[in-house]
Amino acid sequence: xxxxxxxxxxxxxxxxxxxxxxxxxxxxxxxxxxxxxxxxxxxxxxxxxxxxxxxxxxxxxxxxxxxxxxxxxxxxxxxxxxxxxxxxxxxxxxxxxxxxxxxxxxxxxxxxxxxxxxxxxxxxxxxxxxxxxxxxxxxxxxxxxxxxxxxxxxxxxxxxxxxxxxxxxxxxxxxxxxxxxx
Length: 182
Known about the structure:
The protein has 182 residues and is α/β, with parallel strands linked by helices. It is built from six helices and nine strands, in the order αββαβαβαβαββαββ. α1 (2-13) crosses α5. The termini are far apart. The protein is globular. The strands form two sheets. It has a five-stranded mixed sheet. The model has no long low-confidence stretch (mean pLDDT 95). β1 and β2 (26-29) form a beta hairpin.
C-alpha cells in the first residue's frame, strides 16, 4: 500500500495533479508551491484564482511554511478541532504566494485525521492543495471510479481507497471571528 502513496507523491513533486480520498469526497491536490501545477488545477476546475485554495496536512509541522505555528494558541477552537474534518482560515505568513491565498490575508488549512491523506502528505513531505475532485458545477467524486470516469485524462494519478464516509464536505470557518464560511 505504501507504493501507491510514493507513486502519488512522485507525481506531485513532478508538478502533476493527484486525486485522493478525503473525509467526505475525493480531492484533487498538487504541490502548493508549484505555480504551474496550481494554474493547471485552477484551469481544470474552472476556479478563479481570487478565491484561494485549501491546504491539507497530516501533521501540524507541515503547515510551518504557511502560518506562524507559535500563534496557534491564540486560536483555541482551531487547536481543539484538529486533527479532524475542520478547515480554518488562518492568518498566513507574508511569504505565502497569492496563488494560494487569492485575495485574502488568510489561508484555508485542514489538519486531517483521514489516513489516506496523512499517508500521502507524509510521502510527499508536506501539505498539499485540497479541492474537490469535480469539474465546475458538477458534484464531487465519491469514489476512485467516479474520478477516473470524469478526470483520468486530466490528472496524473488517482490514489485508490475509500473516503472516511462523511456525508457533507468539511466546514470552513474564520479562525479570527469564528464565523462559518461554508
